[in-house]
C-alpha cells in the first residue's frame, strides 16, 4: 500500500513539473499575441499566464515538500504544504488583477485601435486551446489523486480559458465596430474575474488549513464502510474526519462486547482500516476501542 502511494506521489510530481512547461509555452504564445496587436486585453491575458507559471512552480515545490515522510517535528506528515501553494497562487492572482486594472485605466484614458488583430487573435486562440486541454487533465488527475495543488492549478487555468474566450470575442467585436475603448473595458472585466478566482482559491485553501471535515457524501460513505466491516462489534460513534492535502484523517470509537479478547477487537479494527484504505489509500485512521457500557446508540450503529 505504501509503495503504491509513493508511486502515485511521484507521478503527481511529474504532472506538476509538466504543468510548469505547459505554462511557459502558453505564456510565450500569449506574449507574442500581445506584441503583435498591442492590445491591453491581450496584455492582461498574458499577465495572468505569468501568474499561472508562478502558481505551477509553487505547486511543484509544495507537492515535493508534502511528500516528505512524517518526522519528529511533523508526526502527522507534511501534507498541508499543498494548501500553502494554493494561498500563494491566490495572492499572485490578486496582484496580477490589480496590475491589469492599472493598465486598463491608462489605456482607457488614451485608447487606440489594434494592430494586426487577426494574427494576434489566432496565436492567442492556440494558447487558449492548449490551456483548455491541460486544465481538464489537471482537474481530473488532481481529484483522482486528492491533490489540492493540482486541482487549484487546473481550476485557475480553467478561469484563464474562460477569460481568454471572453477577450477574443470582445476584441473581435472591438475590431468589427471600430470602438477602441472596448479593449481596456475587456481588460478591466478580466481583472474582476481574476480577483474572484483568487479569492475562491484562498478561501478553499484556508478551509483545509482549518481542518474542515470531508464533504457529507464522503462522510456517509465512510460510515457505510465502517458499518459493513465491523461484524462482531456493537457500534461505532463519534466519527470525525478532516482533510490535509492528499491525506484524510478518520477517527472514531468502536464499541465491542466487554468479554471480547483484545486480539478479536484488533482484528475488527484491521478489517475496517483495510476497507477504508481501499477506498481512500491516503487515509490516516485512528480507532479507539471501548467496552459495551460506553455505547451511545448513535452515530454508526453496527448490526
Automatic annotation (TrEMBL):
It holds the Pfam family Cation_efflux. Its main location: membrane. It is found in: Cell membrane. It comes from the Bacteria. One of its GO terms (cellular component) is plasma membrane. GO terms for molecular function: cadmium ion transmembrane transporter activity; ferrous iron transmembrane transporter activity; zinc efflux antiporter activity. Keywords: Cell membrane, Membrane, Transmembrane, Transmembrane helix, Transport. Residues 18-210 form the Cation efflux protein transmembrane domain. The chain crosses the membrane at residues 12-37, 49-67, 83-101, 121-140, 161-179. It is a multi-pass membrane protein. Residues 216-292 form the Cation efflux protein cytoplasmic domain. Belongs to the cation diffusion facilitator (CDF) transporter (TC 2.A.4) family. PANTHER family: MITOCHONDRIAL METAL TRANSPORTER 1-RELATED. This is Protein p34. The lineage of its organism: Bacteria, Pseudomonadati, Pseudomonadota, Alphaproteobacteria, Hyphomicrobiales.
Amino acid at each position: 500500500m505504501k509503495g503504491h502511494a509513493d508511486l502515485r506521489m511521484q507521478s503527481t510530481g511529474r504532472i506538476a513539473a509538466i504543468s510548469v512547461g505547459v505554462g511557459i509555452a502558453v505564456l510565450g504564445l500569449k506574449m507574442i499575441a500581445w506584441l503583435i496587436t498591442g492590445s491591453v486585453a491581450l496584455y492582461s491575458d498574458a499577465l495572468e499566464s505569468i501568474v499561472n507559471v508562478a502558481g505551477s512552480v509553487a505547486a511543484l515545490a509544495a507537492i515535493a515538500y508534502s511528500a516528505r515522510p512524517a518526522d519528529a517535528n511533523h508526526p502527522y506528515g507534511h501534507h498541508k504544504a499543498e494548501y500553502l501553494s494554493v494561498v500563494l497562487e491566490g495572492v499572485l492572482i490578486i496582484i496580477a488583477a490589480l496590475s491589469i486594472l492599472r493598465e486598463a485605466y491608462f489605456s482607457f484614458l488614451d485608447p487606440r485601435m489594434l494592430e494586426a488583430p487577426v494574427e494576434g487573435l489566432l496565436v492567442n486562440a492556440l494558447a487558449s486551446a492548449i490551456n483548455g486541454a491541460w486544465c481538464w487533465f489537471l482537474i481530473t488527475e488532481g481529484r483522482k489523486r486528492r491533490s489540492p495543488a493540482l486541482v487549484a492549478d487546473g481550476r485557475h487555468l480553467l478561469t484563464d480559458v474562460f477569460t481568454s474566450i471572453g477577450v477574443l470575442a470582445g476584441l473581435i467585436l472591438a475590431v468589427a465596430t471600430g470602438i477602441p475603448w472596448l479593449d481596456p473595458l475587456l481588460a478591466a472585466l478580466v481583472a474582476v474575474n481574476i480577483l474572484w478566482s483568487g479569492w475562491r482559491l484562498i478561501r478553499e485553501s484556508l478551509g483545509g488549513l482549518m481542518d474542515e471535515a470531508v464533504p457529507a457524501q464522503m462522510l456517509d460513505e465512510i460510515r457505510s464502510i465502517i458499518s459493513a466491516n465491523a461484524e462482531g462489534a456493537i457500534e461505532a460513534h463519534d466519527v470525525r474526519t478532516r482533510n490535509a492535502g492528499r491525506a484524510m484523517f478518520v477517527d472514531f470509537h468502536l464499541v465491542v462486547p466487554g468479554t471480547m479478547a483484545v486480539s478479536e477487537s484488533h482484528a475488527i479494527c484491521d478489517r475496517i482500516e483495510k476497507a477504508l484504505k481501499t477506498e481512500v489509500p491516503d487515509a490516516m485512521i485512528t480507532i479507539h476501542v471501548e467496552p459495551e457500557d460506553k455505547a451511545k446508540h448513535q452515530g454508526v450503529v453496527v448490526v
